[in-house]
Amino acid sequence: QSTRPLADRSPEEIEAFLAEQRAAHADLAARGLTLDLTRGKPSSAQLDLSDRLLALPEGHVDADGVDTRNYGGLHGLRELREIFAELLWIEPEQLVAGGSSSLVMMREVLVDLLLKGGVDSERPWSAEEKVTFICPVPGYDRHFTLLEWLGIETVTVPMLETGPDVDAVAEIAAADPSVKGIWIVPTYANPTGSVVTQEVAERLASMPTAAPDFKIFWDNAYAFHHLTEDEAKSADILSLASAAGHPHRPIMFASTSKITYAGAGVAFVGGSVETVQWYVGHLGQGSIGPDKLNQLRHAQFFGSAQGVRDHMVRHREVIGPKFAEVQRVLEERLGGLGVATWTEPTGGYFVSLDVLDGTASRVIALAKQAGIALTPAGSAFPHSDDPRDRNIRLAPTFPPLEQVTAAMEAVTTCVLLAAAEKLHG
Ligand code: PMP
């Protein structure tokens, strides 16, 4: 097919192009496909990589001689915290190993802040007239729905390749004391794949904020999830914030959901020693200790921080080809036509596709007609409101490679058809 931009074509050419894409879409719909690119889940081949866990732990006593079958140990197993503290560049005292979900920990921390206030708060956040969070967009849908559920207001800033638009963030945070925090996925962000640079991290850590207890929710869900040998290093946000005189500003989260098992991994929350004490104090009101047997088997499975890094290379070998396939199909089918731009992530779980303004929901509806499930339009924005109706999040890890190819070919047909409809008017 011609690769001349659609916008440069004559009305007759657009007419013909539209007819071609309609026919292609009709063929697609007739094939009765059922394919799914919605959620960033590990594939079963990835889960298989961790099946040695099913035969662990060996014994049930941890490095401190504690019987992990019993109650206790709210901070989590020391040997597992040591491994992940090294990977996250913090001290083990700054890290808690908990249950299987970091998202649950994010919810706990927000609820604790609302009900009790943070270590540096003047009062509980719920006693404020209003609480607002800065949301870089596109971002992770569950971050936004969690805020909505808690009645926290949102203000958006653009997510750039280097992290959030930090000038916009600094301006908003300095001006409004109701602005209490920001979501940051610092490494291979969901869905853009952006990596927060050292400069952006320094600004976030040091910027003046109108709220004295401003929090950076540093959700490092994809810290080790490299897709190439060019491995991004997360900025050391806790040291930066400490050096800038805001030691309690960052609260970091991570988990092994996409390292071992997404339903039976281990999640972590970290921060200043005071923040950790604050978190554990609240946790202890509802828990006598985590699943230490699961933590023990994870510690034995990895053995060391290097064990985690080595394991992530095996993930990369499984999912790298799927991401390469997404790029190949996008480039071959959409390249040069001026109908879409997309990210080329070097890690994480997503590709963020921007189609012509006003056509994302149409593309998603066309895909649905053809049996391809895509994340609902606007998902990556608070209140599902993508003001330009252009963003589509693609998640290629779960389906087998041949399904990624088929799904992406179908998606590109829908992008072309929606673009042709728009230009035809
Ligand atoms: N944060 C981000 C940015 C994510 O993409 C995800 C998973 N989709 C999570 C958190 C969820 O993490 P967990 O499984 O530890 O709850």
UniProtKB/TrEMBL annotation:
- Stored Pfam families: Asp_aminotransf
- What GO molecular function annotations does the UniProt record carry, in alphabetical order? DNA binding; L-aspartate:2-oxoglutarate aminotransferase activity
UniProt keywords (A-Z) are: Aminotransferase, DNA-binding, Transferase
The yes or no answer to whether the keyword Transferase is present is: yes
Q: Which InterPro entries does the record cross-reference, listed alphabetically?
A: AspAT_Ic, PyrdxlP-dep_Trfase, PyrdxlP-dep_Trfase_major, PyrdxlP-dep_Trfase_small
Protein name, as recorded: DNA-binding transcriptional regulator, MocR family, contains an aminotransferase domain
Which organism is this entry from? Nocardioides scoriae
